[in-house]
Design a protein that fits this description.
Radius of gyration of chain A: 20 Å
Chains: A mainly alpha (about 230), B alpha+beta (about 625), C alpha+beta (about 250)
Structural class of chain B: alpha+beta
Strand content of chain B: 15-25%
Largest interface: B-C, 82 and 81 residues
Number of strands of chain B: 20
Number of helices of chain B: 17
CATH topology of chain A: 3 helical TM bundles of succinate and fumarate reductases
CATH topology of the largest domain in chain B: FAD/NAD(P)-binding domain
Order of helices and strands of chain A: HHHHHHHHH
Oligomer: heterotrimer
CATH superfamily of chain A: Fumarate reductase/succinate dehydrogenase, transmembrane subunit
Number of domains of chain B: 3
Strand order of the largest sheet of chain B: 6-2-1-10-18
Distance between the termini of chain A: 51 Å
Largest sheet of chain A: none
CATH architecture of the largest domain in chain B: 3-Layer(bba) Sandwich
Shape of chain B: globular
Helix content of chain A: over 70%
CATH architecture of chain A: Up-down Bundle
CATH class of the largest domain in chain B: Alpha Beta
Structural class of chain A: mainly alpha
Shape of chain A: globular
Radius of gyration of chain B: 24 Å
Distance between the termini of chain B: 42 Å
CATH superfamily of the largest domain in chain B: FAD/NAD(P)-binding domain
Chain lengths: ~230, ~625, ~250
């Protein structure tokens, strides 16, 4: 453990933590997106697949774990990783900010991308989004679409995304997530030292794929609901 | 002044070994009591500073660049020679020695050259151990290529960046000692004067280029590794800041300057274009391995090179020197280029010849040529806007390396006891012409393998008084330096020192350049003092003394070149023979080859300073050739 | 051609500094960029003004002394070219060129366009070498090095230490510079004994010098005059991870 802490103390170590936590988030957002796509499943005998899926998530691990325990373990782990991810980002950002006290008058980006340049602002947007999203659809504390009902995933989502600005916020946040994923996935490979001229072009390709997959899948849900395509 | 070369006795193969045993040693406990000043961080300076510190001496090292890694050794492209005989093509220490003495046209000291050839192999071992990424064969062994003036492949190389890679090795060794606290490194610090106390070199006065303040540094011995003086020609292949100051100040303090007129004009440089150029770019001699040099047979040829048919091309090096061909030594190649251009057969009647890769590309394919010379081709294209894969390169000789330098004995000590001189700054190993890939060898030989022994001998056998920087000699040196710098600032004329430098360069190129004549040299001796006078009346140096002032640095260097140029002309005038790079038009064969006069000029000309504008006094160190018999050099 | 130059002028480290505009006329396309500045300096000396301070030395793209950020790009618009090798053909009549020094906290301005890059030396002093004293090492050919390894080590070792990577990096990170030296030595058999401790010390010094943290913008690779690949940054990341996890420090 001391060795890991020593690694974390270096600027590179902080990025390695960001990369590893980032990969966990990538796995999470893909699974999360795939699960939520069940909203498109039509009701079968008055039961929505997504409600079943929600119920599954709450009861997984039973009887070793009580209802909801595993889900909360997951949530807490993810939140913990997110805090680590964010903390590392803030520390390295402060390093970089102080590393150039006088800015250039003219800046001509040669190789950096919109995605690489929006990592920090995108990260902030995503953090704000995650807080909103949890208050919105996990706890229901902020729920402009009417009355939040625990467990009724389908009804909650429909009510929620019928509010145009909620949908708009989700879509914008997902676009930022897409950019963040595109640079993040590629960058995480690089930071973890997964590099070889033979398959380096493949890293970019994978980053594109993940970014488009997650963004498109996640945007499809609120947009379809707002447009009344989901019943 | 007495010139004692201190060459040890015995057969040449045993001289260095015997001498190493005969020299006195400094015990490990005493080494740390000695402080050694090393000026310069090129191959010679960095390797000397690092090695002396490893031995336990306390070293102060100085460079005017912002980092020791930037010294001009870094620009060497082609390679470094060693007598390893890895290719099994008949090389040996003796052959490297023989080639170097012959290549230098019998104007170098045999014993020094033999030692150079002896330690050449250690250099390669040392550099490989440091991690220098030399080129390799597929089996993992070191690769070699051939270079001018040799019929064996003995040149080790690291792409087109051999100098850089070797310097990074020495710089690494230097860094290790800096980190260990054994070397006190002073960057952006320029030596302004040498301090001689009781006849011995005991310190230097430097200027901190950032604050402009003068500082005094005392030591038990001083080592100058300050490079050559080619920028006396203004346009040269040297870096812009290369200068003669340190060596010239030592000369003014009593060190003899040897063979200043031996300046190498490198045959493969990009020709001058226009009058607003600041420097000439060298294209590595290694290009001559595959490129063929030619000019049109016809005077007044106007066709594009690719339109000139084979039978109308004159591959003059191949024609005149069939056994060496395009790999004839530098002085021979440069002179041949000059000759064909004088005949009016240069490119478009001007000063350039073709270096053509057409045949090599046909034979080996573009990819192979690209792998060998890609970076050089790219550089050529950036500068000239022409594609050398399709159009032959245009090249012309340019001032490159200076074989002359401060006179040193076998121990690399100058005529001032305690003042040691290494690398290009001394005169010792290359005679009247240096062979390709030998400069790196000499710099590292001096720094890694010679000075560490000989300086110990000096320190152990000399009684050195306790002095510190409060000694009046330091005050005198500092005061005279301040005086001179203030004088430069006070002239307040109308022209920049650059303009004077350009003018000086023109004089030197015209009269003390590739070919020299009595009339021309006498004219130069009239023009140089005139220009110097003009300089001191009309130069304008803005800014002040105690600040970062590049204009002042430059003016101070030009001021010394304006005095030093005269010394070169005196030497060239005295040497009434042709040898190596020094061609007196009065002494050439019908075919334009240099004709030596061994009867009268088989000596090292060592000049003693007698005052500015006063003819210096000539001292002669006779040269004897016991092993390589004096013969007319032939590369036919 | 005629050009307008907006040049950063700063009397010294304490001065605030600012841009001064100069018009230069009759610039020749075959001149190098620094020759164009030389001409401007001669003119300024004639006019009794302080010439513009800028670092330069070899003028053939190898010493790493020249710097300058031209219109937002270190070493100007040509790929794999230092400022001294940039020729005025790159510009056209009437262009405006903004000339700034390399900017980073670790590169304090000395004067005008001259900066102090000694931080890079200190990183290399921390461990960028193989600890071998001058002496009689084994014959050079007793350490075979595969051609591929030698070539890759040479790719890394081609770094000229100019600092353009740091100047171009939006984070002012020195990763490419450090990666090049770490990789050069880690790729060679001679570099193995100190492999772990070397990267450890160099990264610690890099962080201590106040460089920023890499976020993989890859600007460094794009502006590097020697075309050094960011693959070496990946290698550095691997090296430091291995070193730390093996408990070297």
């Amino acid at each position: 453990m001391k060795r890991v802490v020593n690694l974390y103390r270096t600027s590179i170590g902080k990025k390695i933590i960001m990369a590893i936590s980032g990969f966990v988030f990538v796995a999470f957002v893909i699974v999360h997106m795939l699960g939520n796509l069940k909203i498109f499943y039509p009701a079968h005998e008055g039961v929505y697949k997504i409600d079943v899926y929600g119920e599954f998530l709450r009861t997984v691990g039973y009887p070793v774990f009580a209802r909801g325990q595993v889900l909360w373990i997951f949530r807490i782990t993810l939140i913990g990783l997110a805090l680590f991810h964010i903390w590392s980002a803030i520390v390295t950002w402060l390093m970089s900010r102080s590393a150039r006290p006088i800015k250039y008058k003219v800046v001509e980006p040669v190789a950096s991308t919109l995605a690489s340049r929006t990592m920090r602002i995108g990260g902030v947007v995503i953090a704000v989004f995650i807080i909103f999203h949890m208050l919105n659809l996990t706890t229901g504390d902020i729920f402009p679409g009417g009355q939040f009902e625990h467990g009724a995933v389908h009804d909650n989502m429909l009510a929620n995304f019928s509010v145009w600005w909620v949908t708009a916020f989700y879509v914008i946040a997902m676009l930022f997530l897409g950019l963040h994923l595109y640079h993040g996935v590629w960058s995480a490979f690089q930071t973890l030292g997964v590099s070889n001229p033979k398959y380096n072009s493949w890293r970019r390709g994978l980053a594109w794929f993940v970014a488009i997959l997650v963004t498109a899948g996640n945007i499809a849900i609120p947009l379809a609901i707002l447009m009344g395509k989901v019943h | 002044m007495k010139l004692d070369s201190k060459v040890p006795g015995g057969p040449i193969e045993e001289k260095w070994d015997r001498h190493r045993f005969d020299m006195k040693l400094v015990s490990p406990a005493n080494k740390r009591k000695f402080e050694i000043i090393v000026v310069g961080t090129g191959l010679a300076g960095a390797s000397a500073a690092a090695t002396l510190a490893e031995l336990g001496y306390h070293v102060k090292n100085f460079c005017f660049q912002d980092s020791p890694r930037r010294a001009h050794s870094i620009s060497a492209q082609g390679g470094i020679n060693a007598a390893k005989n890895y290719p099994n093509d008949g090389d040996s220490i003796y052959r490297l020695f023989y080639d170097t003495v012959k290549g230098g046209d019998f104007r170098s000291r045999e014993a020094n050259v033999y030692r150079l050839a002896q330690v050449s192999n250690n250099i390669i071992d040392q550099c490989v151990a440091q991690g220098v990424p030399f080129a390799r064969e597929y089996g993992g062994m070191l690769a070699n290529r051939s270079f001018g003036g040799a019929q064996v492949s003995r040149t080790f190389y690291a792409r087109g960046q051999t100098g850089q890679q070797l310097l990074l090795g020495a710089y690494g060794a230097l860094n290790r000692q800096i980190a260990a606290g054994k070397i006190e490194m002073h960057t952006r610090t320029e030596m302004i004067d040498l301090v001689v106390i009781n006849g011995k070199a005991r310190g230097i006065v430097v200027r901190d280029l950032i604050t402009g303040k003068l500082e005094r540094h005392v030591g038990h011995a001083v080592v100058l590794a300050t490079g050559g003086y080619s920028p006396v020609f203004y346009l040269s292949t040297n870096a812009m800041n290369c200068n003669v100051n340190a060596a010239y100040r030592a000369y003014k303090r009593g060190a003899a300057f040897a063979n200043p007129c031996f300046t190498q004009i490198h045959p493969t440089c990009i020709p001058v274009h226009g009058d607003r150029q600041s420097k000439l770019t060298l294209m590595s001699e290694s290009l001559r391995n595959d490129g063929r040099i030619w000019v049109p047979k016809k005077v007044g040829e106007t066709r594009e090179p690719n339109d000139i048919p084979e039978e109308e091309r004159d591959y003059y090096l191949e024609r005149k020197y069939p056994s060496f061909g395009n790999l004839a030594p530098r002085d021979v190649s440069s002179r041949a280029a000059l000759e064909v251009c004088r005949e009016g057969r240069g490119v478009n009647g001007g000063n350039a010849v073709y270096l053509d890769f057409r045949d090599a590309i046909q034979r080996l394919g573009k990819e192979t040529i690209k792998a060998r010379y890609g970076n050089l081709f790219d550089m050529y294209q950036r500068i000239t806007d022409e594609n050398p894969y399709e159009v032959p390169m245009r090249i012309y000789p340019a001032p490159h390396y200076t074989m002359g330098g401060l006179w040193v004995d076998y121990n690399l000590m100058s005529t001032i006891p305690g003042l040691h001189v290494l690398g290009e700054a001394n005169f010792s190993d290359h005679g009247a012409n240096r062979l390709g890939a030998s400069a790196l060898m000499q710099g590292l030989a001096d720094g890694y393998f010679v000075i560490p022994y000989t300086i110990g001998h000096y320190l152990a056998s000399t009684s050195l008084e306790d002095v510190d920087t409060s000694h009046p000699a330091f005050a005198e040196a500092e005061a005279s330096a301040v005086d001179r710098l203030k004088k430069l600032l006070a002239v307040g004329g109308t022209r920049s020192s650059d303009e004077f430098h350009k003018k000086l360069g023109r004089i030197m190129w015209d009269y003390v350049g590739l070919s020299r004549s009595k009339e021309g040299l006498e004219k130069a001796l009239k023009l140089i003092p005139e220009l110097r006078e003009e300089f001191w009346e009309d130069v304008r140096v803005p800014g002040g003394l105690n600040e970062f002032n590049q204009a002042l640095e430059k003016a101070n260097r030009v001021a010394d070149f304006l005095e030093f140029a005269e010394l070169m002309a005196y030497d060239a005038l005295d040497r009434d023979e042709s040898c190596g790079a020094h061609l007196r038009v009065e002494h050439q064969s019908d075919e334009g080859e240099a004709v030596r006069n061994d009867e009268e000029y088989s000596y090292v000309a060592a000049w003693e300073f007698k005052g500015v504008g006063v003819k210096p006094e000539l001292h002669k160190e006779p040269l004897e050739f016991e092993y390589v018999k004096l013969a007319t050099r032939s590369y036919k | 051609m005629d050009l307008k130059l907006k040049i950063w002028r700063q009397k010294g480290p304490e001065d605030k500094g600012g841009f001064v505009t100069y018009e230069v006329k009759d610039v020749h396309p075959d001149q190098s960029f620094l020759e164009m500045l030389d001409d401007l300096n001669v003119r300024l000396i004639h006019e009794g003004e302080d010439p513009i301070a800028f670092d330069h030395d070899c003028r053939e793209g190898i010493c790493g002394m020249c710097s300058l950020v031209l219109n937002g790009r270190p070493h100007g618009p040509w790929d794999e070219t230092t400022t001294c090798q940039l020729h005025m053909r790159a510009y056209k009549d009437g262009d405006t060129i903004t000339i700034e020094p390399f900017r980073a906290k670790a590169f304090p301005v000395v004067k005008d366009l001259v900066v102090d890059r000694s931080a890079m030396d200190r990183v290399l002093q921390a461990g960028g070498y193989i600890s071998v004293a001058t002496g009689n090492p084994q014959d050079a050919n007793t350490i075979p090095v595969s051609k591929d390894d030698a070539e890759r080590a040479m790719d890394a070792s081609a770094c000229i230490g100019c600092g353009a990577c740091i100047a171009s990096c939006p984070n002012a990170s020195a990763m490419l510079f450090v990666a090049a030296k770490v990789s050069h030595l880690a790729l060679l058999p001679q570099g193995q004994p100190e492999r772990m401790i070397r990267v450890d010390k160099m990264v610690a010094q890099m962080d201590a010098e106040g460089f920023g943290a890499c976020t993989n913008h890859t600007e460094c690779e794009a502006v590097c005059p020697k075309g050094i690949s960011i693959d070496f940054i990946a290698m550095l990341n691997r090296e430091i991870t291995r070193s730390k996890l093996s408990g070297v420090s």
